[in-house]
Amino acid sequence: MLEIISDPQSMRSEVLKARAAGHRIGFVPTMGALHAGHASLVARAVRECEAVAVSIFVNPTQFGPAEDFERYPRQLQADCQLLNEWKVRWVFAPEAAAIYPPGAATRVVVGGPAGCFEGEVRPGHFEGVATVVCRLFLAVPADAAYFGAKDWQQTLVVKRMVCDLGLAVDVVVCPTVREPDGLAMSSRNALLTPDERHRAVALFESLCCAERMWLAGFAVAGIEQAMREALQARSVSVDYAVVVAADSLEPYDASLAVSQSGAKALPVPVALVAGRVGSTRLIDNRVLPART
Ligand code: PAF
Questions:
Q1: Domain encompassing residue 28
Q2: Which of 77, 113, 187, 201 is the most buried (most CB within 10 A)?
Q3: CA 166, CA 209: separation in Å to the nearest integer?
């Protein structure tokens, strides 16, 4: 039976009790408005752990002043019903003041993979993400935490933070779940009008185009141009459309790709896209397969 907990200390002691009883604990941090993407994270956590906690907290510090914090979908009751069906043990749904007590003045700032793309377009975003995830990890001291690959850069930032702070949690990255037409599941999809929903498939189309061109041997610059054109063809205003190294987000070094020396392993490439469909901002990505 699902238990809803809002106090971080109570949440922490429940998890520590279960761990002391020898249970492996899984944790899925979310901002709610749950969809099939979250369901797949929870299903994996339930498969791999004896008890699972899900947090629902729309974190104000990861939204910029002109972003969609106010209109971000909120549906706690419906979410709890789903989480009960999905066999989750605890929902951690704190008030903002429990996460950021009056006078809170501590932030977690990650460098490295947080500096580019989302970090540039949304200044302060990853500081908000890292700070809240760190705070959530303290309230839910789980063995493993599950994140979706749709937020590729976020997974790198969280892994960097976990490694740098020596946090004892396994970060598990799960594949993106898609609508039948390819649109990546996202809570923000609920904000799209029917026409925008139709046009939003451009993100997936641009990634398919990137993969086709990559496998056909095109250079990165040409692929990026074609990705931008695929987005613009459906009037998506492009923030970025790039092919970069998947683990560092550094420019994909084409010279390495043609290097015959074998001295350095080739980076795995990932195509990243972000853009605005109407007033809703969406992101997506695809790790590109090896060229044979
Ligand atoms: O991916 C999300 O939903 C959020 O960024 C997270 C990890 C729950 C932090 O607020």
A1: 3-174
A2: 113
A3: 39
